[in-house]
Amino acid sequence: MSNNGTDLTLGFISSSVAILLFGSNYVPLKKYDTGDGMFLQWVLCAAIWLVALVANLVLHCPKFWPFAMVGGCIWATGNIAVVPVMKTIGLGLGLLIWGSFNALTGWTSSRFGWFGMDAEEVAKPLLNYLGAGLSVVSTFIFFFIKSEIPKNTCSMDTTPLMTEHVTNKTQDPCPGSSWVDKLSPVQSRMVGCSLAVISGILYGSTFVPIIYIKDHSKRNDSIYAGASQYGFLSGILWAIATCCWFIANHSLSAVVSFPIITAGPGFVAAMWGVFMFKEIQGQQNYLLMIFAFCIILTGALCTAFSKT
User: Fold this and answer.
1) How far apart are CA 178 and CA 187, in angstroms?
2) Of 39, 49, 221, 293, which has the maximum CB count within 10 A?
3) Exposed, middle or buried: residue 239 (CB in 10 Å: 0-12, 13-18, 19+)?
4) Are 163 and 171 in contact, with CB atoms under 8 Å apart?
5) What are the C-alpha distances in Å from 222 to residues 127, 203, 210?
6) What's the burial of 69, exposed, middle or buried (CB within 10 Å: 0-12/13-18/19+)?
7) What angle do CA 62, 68, 69 make, to 5 degrees?
């Protein structure tokens, strides 16, 4: 097999693993009362950093560029909204929406060379544009899918992530409730969809600093000359999926991998939402979801074939 064929095979395998893990990494959170999500954010980022440390050691500790940390800050900022999004519109719909905006942001910045990155070319631009366009169309369909999210009922079955001893005798009857639990259904949907869009845009910008370093590492007059072509971000499933995403970026290029990897996890998360958590119900919602998935699949295939 040629080197090009090997890269494509490795890229698509890495993309498949990333899709599965990205679509499943928030599933364990549905079992616990996550409050406003800030403590969760700390635990998740700590787990990601540990896996990233292992990845860095495996790569023999390539030179570290502080600018790459900007990508981690952008991701962490977007990740603050994960818990509110899950509580308002659900895991499946939330990931579908932020995944679509993630794809659009990542694709446009890579394709047109935003933020100082090199514009990436593909063999069949028309197919690439079509694939990205279909991802946008699917986004608007997702806004019409209604999700059923139960409100906090102070059930004893949920175990809080962190507890504290309270000496005050007047206790909150729902100690695990947060501002999200007090929103009306209409407010929940508006807040959830808005936060999912913002998170998607931030997620789509996560790789900008690292791709910038990689592009400029090929130029002798750049301070990043000679920087490693492989990288890592500092949640076990998320970190492994991100490592696979880096491999896919290297093998397929970001302009191809972004639409595929950012659209795919929404399908996986939606299946969790439909079959496990019953977030999405009703024939009309099922038909809209299937229609949107068909559009996503078509777009992903167009994007994939645009490389060759």
Assistant:
1) 14
2) 293
3) buried
4) no
5) 34, 27, 14
6) middle
7) 115
Return the SS3 of 34: coil
Handedness of CA 229, 233, 236, 237 (dihedral sign): negative
DSSP letters spanning 212-262: HHHHHTT-TTSTTTT--S------HHHHHHHHHHHHHHHHH-HHHHHHHHH
What tokens appear for 183 in the block?
A: 């929103």
In angstroms, how far is CA 252 from the centroid of its own chain? 18
Tell me the residue type at 273.
Answer: G
What own/partner pairs with CB < 8 Å and gap ≥ 24 does 198-201 have? Answer: 198/78, 198/81, 199/78, 199/79, 199/81, 199/82, 199/85, 199/98, 199/101, 200/78, 200/97, 200/98, 200/99, 200/100, 200/101, 200/102, 200/104, 200/105, 201/78, 201/101, 201/102, 201/105
C-beta separation of 77 from 37 below 8 A: no
pTM of the model: 0.63
Which candidate, 129, 127, 87, places its Cα nearest to that of 107?
129
Per-residue pLDDT tens digits for 115-133 = 778 888 878 888 888 887 8
CA–CA gap between residue 52 and residue 233 (Å, rounded): 6
How far apart are alpha carbons 49 and 112 in whole angstroms? Answer: 31
